[in-house]
Amino acid sequence: MSHAVVIGASIGGMLAARALTSTFGQVTLIDRDTVPDRAVPRRGVPQSRQAHVLLARGSTALEELFPGFVDEMLAAGVPAGDAHADCHWYLDGHPMRRAPSTLPVFGVSRPLLEHLVRQRLRALPGVRILDGEDVTALLHDKRVRGVRTTRSEMLADLVVDASGRATRAPRWLRSLGYGEIPVTTVRSEVVYTTRHYRYDPGAGAPFAVVMAPYPGMQRTGVTIRQDGDRVVVLLAGMLGEEPPTDDAGMLAFAESLPGPEIAAFLRTAEPLDAPARMRYPASVRHHYERLRRRPVGFLALGDALCSFNPIYGQGVTVAALEALLLAALIGTAPERYFREAARLVDNPWALASATDLRFPQVEGRRRPTDRPLNAYLARYRAATVHDATLGAAFLRVSNMLAPPAHLLAPSTILRVLRADSTINIDDQELLGVRHTTVP
Fold it and tell me: In a designed cystine with 107, which of 144, 226, 293, 325 is the match (CB 3.0 to 4.6 A)?
């Protein structure tokens, strides 16, 4: 194999390109946007001004793709903390008990993360980035042979779609006779506002505060320390709740959240920029693995394959894991990629979609087991107020270091039952707990 084309030069596209460099002599990334040579937001990545955080599994995946990457982040001024000890978590309004852990969290902004990845990628032989050029179609002759752009036609042995949520690949493939790509959608109608503030080391603000939404509270608030001696504040609403963009309105919105930290910060913080608002109507998963006839010479990665509710911060980590999968399969069994990628996506998708589907107004398919499972997880979240072990297990799952089933281990269920003496026998039966008395 000699040439691969990647559509999109954002995080997913660059990580895909890195994965392909071990197999292809030349890798070309094509992006319709102007790609900067500095750590600045860009028009083609509207979420680049929004709050970002790198999960623990995401940092290890980036380290596998680019050895020494974590040290480079730290050298560039990215603050790091302990995801359990240094972050204030509110689950269903309950403050999680903090404790030391081995889970790192990195407050890296999206522009700096892209810049650092771009620098590493550009240093690799055989990689080029074509910006200001749009891919308009796939070249096809019994298989995908390359792409047509606004400037030319480009032949390739492999085309990887990493163009994000606005992917046009399903339409292109349908026109080529592959049929409809099956899609799963969970519509949560998220609107979020982000603003950056000056970091004051003497103010005593925690490394991060996360107040997650829950039925009855469709509002979310997050603060995270970031590079550039800044703190980023994200305020979000679901299903008709929209955070304002004026100072008084943002403060009033923060005061309605379960904990006091974000409102306390906003009362004295010095803003560094204007608020940026963004809308995210729905999480969308494209099931290429279900196609009867899959296109040879074509793969998809990142948001072009599956986009997640941004509140949960999974996107960069999932893209990095997909890139590792691509690197493992591309030289030997690329035909397995969509099937294996679907398995990889299953856990983060289940975690995010199940959390959204707790809200009765959210559109999406529900299972008969969801109601008893949600009842158990509500008790679980409440129990993290006093039980740091349960909090640690939750963070391992949310950081994608363990599958969601980790929260249903027998020993974990017993800890939840001990923490909630009001649980009744019928609830235990629904949860599959076969004890006639609560230990």
Answer: 226
Question: What is the spatial distance between Cα 206 and Cα 256, in angstroms, rounded to a whole number?
Answer: 19
Phi, psi of 82 (to 5 degrees): -95, 120
How much is the mean pLDDT over the chain? 92
**Cα 309 from Cα 243, distance rounded (Å):** 17
The residue written with tokens 């649980």 in the block is 423
* Cβ–Cβ < 8 Å for 117, 19: no
- How far apart are alpha carbons 27 and 37 in whole angstroms? 19
Nearest to 104 by CA among 41, 172, 167, 58: 58
Q: Is 149 helix (H, G, I), strand (E, B) or coil?
A: strand
What pLDDT does 438 receive? 26
**Order of strands, edge to edge, in the sheet holding 127-131?**
127-131, 26-31, 3-7, 158-161, 298-300
How far apart are alpha carbons 122 and 10 in whole angstroms?
A: 13
Residues 6+ apart with CB under 8 A from 27: 3, 4, 5, 6, 17, 20, 21, 126, 127, 128
Predicted confidence (pLDDT) per residue in 164-207, tens digit: 999 999 999 999 999 999 999 999 999 999 999 999 998 888 99
Distance, in Å, from the CA atom of 238 to the CA atom of 13, rounded to the nearest integer, reads 29
The SS3 of residue 425 is helix
State the pTM of this model.
0.92
List the beta strands (DSSP E) in 92-229. 94-95, 104-106, 127-131, 135-140, 144-149, 153-155, 158-161, 183-198, 208-211, 219-226
Q: Phi and psi dihedrals of 36, rounded to 5?
A: -80, 165
The pair of structure tokens assigned to 237 is 């609403």
The C-alpha atoms of residue 329 and residue 331 are separated, in whole angstroms, by 6
- Answer yes or no: are the C-beta atoms of 81 and 74 closer than 8 Å: no
User: Tokens 């026998």 identify what position?
Assistant: 425
Which residues, other chains included, contact 4 with Cβ-Cβ below 8 Å and sequence gap of 6+? 17, 20, 23, 24, 26, 27, 28, 156, 157, 158, 159, 160
H/E stretch holding 69 reads: helix 69-75
For 324, other C-beta atoms within 10 Å of its C-beta total 18
CA distance 34 to 99: 44
The pLDDT tens digits of the residues spanning 273-309 come to 999 999 999 999 999 999 999 999 999 999 999 999 9
Tell me the three state secondary structure of residue 254.
helix
313 phi and psi angles, rounded to 5 deg: 65, 35
